[in-house]
């Protein structure tokens, strides 16, 4: 608990460049902890971050560590991050977000569940073996970064660079950067990808006064609203031709699996605070969060977005929207479909303005085989610690690093969350329960043991 | 010229509260100038401004002054403002915006044309009579404010309070806070009003992650885009039932008047930088800027509007749009029409989200009779100074103070601009030409003389 208190006390907010010294201190603290445990530790320089104004700032180093190097054993690499989302008491926190506070068995603080406690739980798992003077059943490596919350800046290049060195003998990658779906423990076998688009409509050469020019020009904002309105139906159906058609059909097996998952639709509805959800039965709701695409319009840049009543005709407006990717969608194809569709819709308007559509992120979905020995080992470990079967779940969000690990190393990946379903990652009053923290550590201890049982020569199959 | 240099040097930006001391100094400077000329001057306290954070800041005082009080003469009141729009060299100014710079006969500087030089021209006009030891042909009052650019905070109450005192003996109000349409001098006889709306769609109780919740909730942004898209057709037609129907038909007389106005459509098009305008002939273009309503969507508050790629589902989004008002529209009716229409369109979507429509500004249009003796006097004065007939023009924008003066005092108003058509009010490189400044002063001298000729008992007719 003391380590978690120390870690949470550091405001390692990677989105705020003024907190960068804190972030550097955080990485040092992680490295020092692993060094004191006798690990072979490196702080890997991953270069600099370019800021919007053209200046640069040093990225937090990535910590790599190694415990054991017995070539006859499997080697796992635990990925985690110790940077956090922003948090201020004024945002609506009941307690100081950087002062770990224990209330009724819940440990409140920014970064507890996402992702400091899970990283510490893995460290405690290794320490437990050491404390009992037992040799580790598998070699354990750590790869801990400090830029996850802002897009893992610099990590892809680092992974590529270390493919044939630090990562060369890694057999399996373990990620514990997500949460359960209910009180039942879970293994996560899929994440959605994300294609993020900018649609820019440009007209006059500068912003115009709506009194003086209103009625004289076709306003870019009107055009942009017009084309955005063709993306989604009122009920949430995607209207871009080809998108829905590419989605892998829901199999009976999958339906059955979803049906068996423990998930309280009403609790979920109440948590979001909406009157009714897009789908009111469990299977449809989970399927649309995990294995169907969605379009979200995030906002518009260049228009008036402040309080007050500015009477401007914005000259250039850029909509930001994204489409969550699922098998068998292909970002390159989605890019073509969206671009072609928006341009054809725009052409019908006969507007004098110019449209530019760009895809700025094209992250593929990730999907693992739940029958893979890594997952089988996970089920056994969960059964051992919690005395129940795990839910096999997906994440609606994107964890691009899983896909990168898979594409670069070709190794198998498992996501083994220990965060609670109500931990409030990225929200106010983030917490991790003592129960999840302690039982989670036990799970990791058990899991290392189970992974050691996987036959070394067994042929592995993974959906890519 | 020296007075203008001193005035421009003061950064009297009323939108920036950090410049408030400058603004106070500006008002003092105006008062002092008028005092030195022997006027009866007051600095009228108009109270405080409430800031968004609940704090208050003192409003700049309003300067009132009086020259002459002969009850046998007409009394005119010149309204003007000495606050300015924001300006920074980095915005793209060729010269320091607060250092009056003379280049080829143009005086560059923030606030030159809007509205410091016109105010000074009026002061010079009074001085000219004094310099020639001539008595003023009419009593001249000044009412100079310092909050025009941010909505004339406090002025309505001040005008109401002074109706039976300072304003009681005023016969005519003169406003020179606009510009010509071409190189030909102009008199302005109308402005459009403005109904400014907020349309707020609220769904989840807080912003959601689009990965985790995308596909589970009907997003407020989708709903908002959907209803905004029903306001205007791609070609710019207003789709809200009842709006177009309320517009006074264009008379043959009006058409003829527009036809005779000097206006270069191509120059206007090039200035805006668009490929083609909404209307390509002079009459339609002018008519749609001046005497037809338009809808402009200014932006959306609550959505993501920064650079970058945030994956948020905004929980509450508020569109800001406004409808320019023309005779015979009525803001109270427009409010009902818009609210009813948006709610009916929204109801068809069967969304779980909540819509709230509010009209936050309801400014009526203003229209004067161009045959009114005040305008006839203006035509004669222009003929005398420039040796040509003025264009009779309107402003597409709103000058709410005209309407307030009219509603509170019941007195007649004339707008007599001296700013050039290309002065760039509110833009970078704002200027006033020496020519307009000097000839404008002459025009005001001549105009005071012409106003003195108006028969005191003549019955006046004004369109309200
Ligand atoms: Zn995380
Ligand atoms: Zn996170
Ligand atoms: Zn002005
Ligand atoms: Zn202005």
Automatic annotation (TrEMBL), chains A, B:
Residues of the Peptidase M20 dimerisation domain: 190-346
Presence of the UniProt keyword NAD in the record: no
Keywords: Hydrolase, Metal-binding, Protease
InterPro entries linked to this entry: ArgE/DapE_CS, Cyt/Met_Dipeptidase, Peptidase_M20, Peptidase_M20_dimer
Family in the record: Belongs to the peptidase M20A family.
Name used for this protein in its record: Peptidase M20 dimerisation domain-containing protein
